[in-house]
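Worked problem 6 (solution included).
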Amino acid sequence: MSYDVEIRRVPNKTILYPDVYVWAFCHTSLMRIPEGGGVRPDKLVCEIHHVLSGSPCLGAGPLELMGLSSVSPIDHHWGKLLHYATVDFNRPSASYDQLRGGRRGRYG
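Solution. The predicted structure is:
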């Protein structure tokens, strides 16, 4: 499993629209779960969606599923890509303030 966050749009200084991408894939030799357990990437996708769908943990608004597609990142690997969208406040993180010295350090 892997994930990435990209900023789709920044319409103003107050809000931004991040997209969250989650890849769930495995080697083709590990696809089947023994004893009728199903297909491993499909099970992963179900669990990931159960946790993330509607969750406010990655933004100011709930995560909304925008798409689901099949992926084959490298030979002999197969899985699914989940695409979620949300809204968040456009504010610098604490690490950003530390990188530029912070306001207190510059103004006294």
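Discussion: The chain has a mean pLDDT of 84.
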